[in-house]
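@channel sequence for tomorrow's demo:
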Amino acid sequence: MTTTGIQTEASVLELQKEIETLEEKIADNDRELLRGAIANVDTAELLRNLLDRIYALAIDPEQKRGMTDICLRLLEKAALTKRLGIELTESDVLILSKLEKKHPNLNIREMKICLLVKLNYDTREIARTVGISTRGMESLRYRMHQKLGLGRHESIKSYLTELAVA
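structure tokens (generated this afternoon):
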């Protein structure tokens, strides 16, 4: 076998290993997504049952209001998590709620992109996450810029940071 043939064979083996590694990562990610989806369904159902039980309790109205407020916030988090397909923190839910109230014209994908921008994902990572090309992502960010009413030199990340503080 020639040197070129050996190098080609080594390259093929290397690529096969890389493919196997990527397939394992994909399988792991699929399992994690499934686990998260199941957990969210169970969480939402449990929270609704808990909320019903709290409403039925004969306790101080102020305590009842505090308990129901917590349940409602957790239900909102579960609903957003399910809609976006991303596990959210309390601060994520807060900023998404503010963003949704201020810009009801944003769709789910744009909300998800805003969250990923806020979490410091770069354009390529966001494009891969939402399943579009990098060029498509750049176009989408440009349109989002307009929807958010941002000036030419204002960044989405800065805007979201300001929104979170407000």
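heads up for whoever presents: Residues 26 and 32 are 10 Å apart (CA to CA).
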